[in-house]
Design brief:
Alpha-Beta Plaits, 2 helices, 23% helix
């Protein structure tokens, strides 16, 4: 099974929901900032994690974003919840 490195970033309004998401994400990766986790996962693990965290948020006000970091030519970004997409000509900068 091939694994990839991911960043999971979230912005969750409710403290209670944020704590639940944090605890669940600790099963899959390492917290690197308050609302950011670094994970090394296979596809099946990503799907299971997504399935487990999806019901924990309010998709009208909260957002969870998954960034696959390796294989830049196959970049994958997934979102849950409130998201304003970037225009195609917008420049994304990762710091």
């Amino acid at each position: 099974m091939t694994k990839s490195k991911y960043l999971v970033c979230y912005d969750i309004v409710s403290n209670k929901k944020r704590t639940k998401v944090y605890k669940k994400l600790k099963d899959y990766g390492t917290p690197v900032q308050k609302s950011v986790f670094e994970c090394i996962l296979g596809i099946a693990q990503v799907e299971l994690m997504w399935k487990e965290i999806s019901p924990l948020i309010d998709e009208n006000t909260d957002i969870i974003t998954l960034y696959r970091l390796d294989r830049i030519e196959q970049t994958c970004i997934k979102n849950l919840g409130f998201y304003i997409p970037h225009e195609e000509d917008d420049e994304l900068i990762f710091v």
